[in-house]
Amino acid sequence: MRTVAVGWEVYQRTQTPLSLGLIGLVLAAPVLLLALPAGAAADRYPRKVLILISQVGLALSGLGLAWVSWTDGPIGLTYAFLLGTGIARAVGWPASQAIVTGLVPAPLFANAAMWRSVAFQLAATLGPLAGGALLAIHGASTVYLLDAASSLVLFGCLLFVRPAPQARSTETRSWASLIEGARYVRRQPVILSTITLDMVAVLFGGAVALLPVYATDVLGVGAVGFGWMRAMPSLGAIVMGLALALAPPMRRAGRVLLVTVAAFGVATIVFGVSTSYPLSLVALFCLGAADNVSVVIRSTVLQLLTPDAMRGRVAAVNAVFIGTSNEIGELESGLVASVIGSVATVVVGGVLTLATVGAAAAIWPALRRLGNLEELEPPDDASARPAPA
């Protein structure tokens, strides 16, 4: 709901695509700067505590956004509290990713990742719908207050979570220890290829970032129509997630990943050229369905191929590449759209996504050979051991 409200309110106040891109910048910058230290902390300290701290920060920034919206304060303060959102996310993101294997047995993780994605996408579907309706009836400040309350609810729920004991990092605090997650990812071609493919596709396929422009200037559907547009990718992801959870395990996960990212690019192009509201909704639905397959494969590969004592730092690398690709993609889309227009920006992004699929298939043969996700496990101790400083 916060995403919908911020995008809508900022564009209504500024009427420039660049202002939407700046939202991505202030959300991504803290992750780029703080993810590696946060990842190292997630391997050294209790991950649950770090997640609780991040939820308090998210609640406070939500209250700040509500105050600025209610008082019609300067737009600069909106960006300031969004920066606070980015900082809170950066602190909790690696820990929230790394803690998952302490909650689910490894043999069940691939299936659990699909159900986890369904749960997330269900919230991501209801949020935009509720956000669009609340924007039309009560305004953005109500949305921000409810968002802050949701962070406090999650804080309370987390108090009752009892994860399995984590394997703590015992390495000496050093720069080499801090960047060991990046070194590990570089040594694992399957992890590196899935992260890179997902990152570049999301970076260039920035259709969602420009939805306020399409809703207002291209399709003319208003706030409620915008809420439905924002919800359709998540609705597609829910349907695909349920299909994946109920279907037999993937036997050729690498090929499936390449095909679905290509489908993501095609759906992006269709949405970019569409002037029909129903067709645009269908394209966004397909875009979300394809993206969810990529998310499930990447998250499973990342968790099951990484030793527990390094999961925080590897999750931090994932946060830098994937967690910020949406926001940096928003910035890229806003900048390019201000020069060549929104339609051309979305179409070019879809074409570049297709080019990325071809490049990934050629550069990483191991990705094409990736098979059953349930058979993945971390490498032996020798290959997992930190590289010399």
* Low-pLDDT ranges: 381-389
Structural class determined from secondary elements:
mainly alpha
Written as H for each helix and E for each strand, in order along the chain, the element string is HHHHHHHHHHHHHHHHHH
User: In what range is the share of β-strand residues?
Assistant: under 5%
Helix content: over 70%
Give the beta-strand count: 0
Distance between the termini: 44 Å
Please, could you describe this protein's structure?
The protein is 79% helix and 0% strand. It is built from 18 helices and no strands. The protein is globular.
Provide a compact summary of the structure.
The chain is mainly alpha-helical. It has 18 helices and no strands. The protein is 79% helix and 0% strand.
Structure keywords:
mainly alpha, 18 helices
Topology overview:
Blueprint: H1 2-14, H2 17-44, H3 47-71, H4 75-98, H5 109-137, H6 140-158, H7 175-178, H8 180-187, H9 189-204, H10 211-218, H11 222-246, H12 253-273, H13 277-304, H14 311-323, H15 325-340, H16 342-363, H17 365-369, H18 381-384
Helix pairs in contact: 1-2, 1-5, 1-6, 2-4, 2-14, 2-15, 3-4, 3-6, 4-14, 5-11, 5-13, 8-14, 9-12, 9-13, 9-15, 9-16, 10-11, 11-13, 12-13, 12-16, 15-16
